[in-house]
Design a protein that fits this description.
Length: 244
């Protein structure tokens, strides 16, 4: 909406926002990548070498996502939107917890685990076969189906859309990401000059780039606290009582 004058909150989330819903993050000592090395389950080479292993990894993760429920942070964004704020969510997460909480504008930078796609043509998407994707499930061109997720070494097709959204932010709120993965992390450099950026993450002190305000709290505490301030005042701002 080009003439939309409502305050525009752009939210950029990582796996930390879903941690309190029971979904594992990636880079912690007990994170997903420690248990399942990236090069064995999340690269095009891994897929070529051992597709059964890759499919099994994503089928198990899909079950974890289905069991999870949106937490207070996901719900707070949906409530803010309900109240009339313009809220655009860009997520690195492949789960659907933002949508299930009720958020309507969600861009999945790294794809969606609840969708399948053709191996030869990313635009050919399919509903998930019952029980997950199996070897032998094929697209209309006869090639194997794969999870509709972006693997390491692959292009990020929605990145230009994300850049455009961040460029229209009144405030950029980053939640639960170590900012270790490019190009996603570079979105923080694209905010308009007068728009503040805030990171909510227990490790915010160590992770926030210069110029980004740090709120060192878990998402389930930090996000609802911020959103309550915004709902009360009808504007986006950074309450100093939460900073640090
Ligand atoms: N609330 C908020 N943040 C939390 C919480 C919590 N309750 N618990 C942990 N975190 C934070 C950690 O401090 C860490 O900064 O979540 C972050 C998780 O970081 P990573 O494991 O690196 O995950 P993420 O940043 O989402 O990874 C980005 O990398 O592996 C790829 O494609 C994958 O989308 C993923 C991308």
């Amino acid at each position: 909406m080009a003439d939309d004058r409502r305050p525009h909150l752009v939210v950029f989330t990582g796996s930390g926002i879903s941690a309190e819903s029971g979904i594992q993050t990636f880079r912690a000592g007990d994170g997903l990548w420690a248990e399942h090395p990236i090069e064995e389950v999340a690269t095009p080479e891994a897929w070529r070498r051992d597709p059964a292993r890759v499919l099994q990894f994503y089928n198990l993760r899909r079950e974890q996502v289905r069991r999870a429920r949106p937490n207070a942070a996901h719900k707070a964004f949906a409530a803010l939107e309900q109240q009339g704020f313009r809220v655009s969510i860009i997520t690195q997460n492949i789960d659907d917890l933002h949508e299930r909480a009720g958020s309507r504008s969600v861009l999945h930078l790294h794809g969606e685990i609840l969708k399948a796609r053709s191996t030869v043509d990313a635009r050919m998407q399919y509903p998930l076969p019952r029980g997950g994707i199996a070897l032998g499930d094929i697209c209309d061109k006869g090639s194997q189906l794969r999870p509709d997720v972006v693997w390491f070494g692959e292009a990020v097709p929605h990145f230009p859309d994300a850049c455009e959204i961040v460029g229209e932010a009144d405030l950029l709120l980053v939640v639960g990401t170590s900012l270790a993965v490019m190009p996603a992390a570079s979105l923080l450099e694209l905010t308009p000059r007068d728009a503040p950026s805030v990171l909510v993450d227990p490790e915010a002190e160590a992770l926030a780039p210069p110029g980004v305000t740090r709120i060192s709290l878990p998402a389930g505490k930090g996000v609802p606290a911020l959103v309550r301030h915004w709902q009360r005042e009808g504007r986006l701002w950074v309450p100093q009582t939460l900073v640090g």
